[in-house]
Amino acid sequence: MTPTVVAAMLACLFLALVGSTLPLGPMYANLHPDYVALLVLYWAITSDNGAGYLPVWAIGLLQDFVVGDMPGAQAIALVLMVFVLYTGISRVKKFSSWEQLLFIFALLLLEQLAAWLWQGWSGVLPQWHLSLLVAPALGTALWPLLTFALDHLYQYFHRPRT
Amino acid sequence: MPGLFFRRPVPSVLRLAALAVLSAMVSFYSLDHPGLRIVGLSVARPVFWVNGEIRSGWTAAERYMRDLASLQRENGRLRKRILSLEKQDLSLPVLRSENRQLLALLDSFPTPPGKVAVAEVIAQSLALGSQTITVNLGNLQGVYVGQPVLAAGGIAGQVTETSPTNARVALLSDRGSSIPVYPMGSGQPLLVAGTGNPQSLKIPFQPRNTPLRKGTVLVSSGLGGRFPPGLPVGTVTAIRRPVTRSFADIRVKPAASLETLNTVLLLWPGARARP
Fold first, then answer.
1. Neighbouring C-beta atoms of residue B188, cutoff 10 Å
2. Local confidence band at B67 (pLDDT 50, 70, 90 cut-offs)
3. How confident is the model at residue A73 (pLDDT cuts 50, 70, 90)?
4. Residue A148 is part of which domain span?
5. B54–A18 C-beta distance less than 8 A
């Protein structure tokens, strides 16, 4: 992985964290996709050697700090999501595009629910909220567009210079 | 590829389990050591800075669309003025409804609200039950943990974490928030707690024959010394008395619009006032 690609990844991660906390009202707060989870999914799928669990965990911890959730909640949720991805990806590759999208939705939902349940460590389980379902659905809808954009970004940085 | 310490790669399940244990340790550690979250708040500073810039840009674009420069300046001045006046008006309904002389005799006259500072909301997290906002003032401006935060209409919450330049505020609707109140015109001490829903708070552990009625206005009681007495907290919107339960299910609508906060007031009540 070249330094340019790493820098581009970090920039995307930064933008994803910004997108997660933008103070644009209640509608946005509850109904925005988990950009960081989407980015980690893309990275885990496209990376040649696969995404390391420790970097994914560190990204999740950073997200916990930025969003203000219980530290460790998003971290383990992201690792769990990547674990399930790698467990099932060989079978899912044979499926149709729509079925693959369903798999993406399941992964995002799993990540969301894992983070939600982990909040119970604080002694208070957060209330069930519609955004727990809506955010993964929006993330799934955004997935084709995101992969299209990131594929182009990746190819731009790998373009031979003349 | 073999690891540094292991001859064979560690199975994924073991790595997952190890990271789960690590996450649990971090979570437990953060419960007793708020310093960890404060470090996190500092780490997130660049993100909040960009958020602030985007917010400012958004606001600036909106104002530009109005295309009236003088009105923009006047609007800015008036907004701050309105917030100050609203802060002063918060205690007026209580003052009108109570007998001043009797309150003076009881030595419970509402204390002056104290010094305030206007802060802008630069990040929000209303999902997952964690109802928090982050504002653009911090330790350097004298913000402290436990500081009351007001918004147009009433109390919004209190500061839970601070860094030099930012502070995180747990709203009244946060699942971990609670505030001592009393109903207007009555001295019955009550506790209003968050539910994770910014539009609805609750009063737990009230008997089914509670004298509370729909429409009862609740104001801060000042018990505990954290919030000044007499500031609006909310209005009782629904009381259900399920026969299968010992307690009534009482819902309260917050006086402040907790889900649409753009600007808040940080309050330094009385003795904690700083220059």
1. 13
2. low
3. confident
4. 3-157
5. yes
In a domain, A162, yes or no: no
Q: How far is CA B251 from CA B141, B161, B195, B237, in A?
A: 36, 28, 10, 6
pLDDT higher than threshold 50 for residue B46: yes
Residues 6 or more apart from B129 whose CB is under 8 A from it?
Answer: A116, A119, A124, A125, A126, A127, A129, B174, B175, B196
pTM over 0.90: no
pLDDT tens digits for range A56-66: 999 999 988 88
B264 part of contact set with chain A, CB < 8 Å: no
CB B54 within 8 A of CB A21: no
Chain B's closest residue to A80, CA to CA, is: B16
What interface predicted TM-score (ipTM) does this complex get? 0.80
Residue for token pair 């994924």: B12
Residue A161: predicted pLDDT: 55
B154-162 and B167-171 beta bridge pairing: antiparallel
In chain A, the number of structural domains is 1
Q: DSSP letters of B44-96?
A: THHHHHHHHHHHHHHHHHHHHHHT-HHHHHHHHHHHHHHHHHHHHHTTHHHHH
Confidence check: pLDDT of B20 > 80: yes
Q: List the single best residue of B1, B5, B14, B19 to mutate versus A (max A Cβ within 10 A).
A: B19
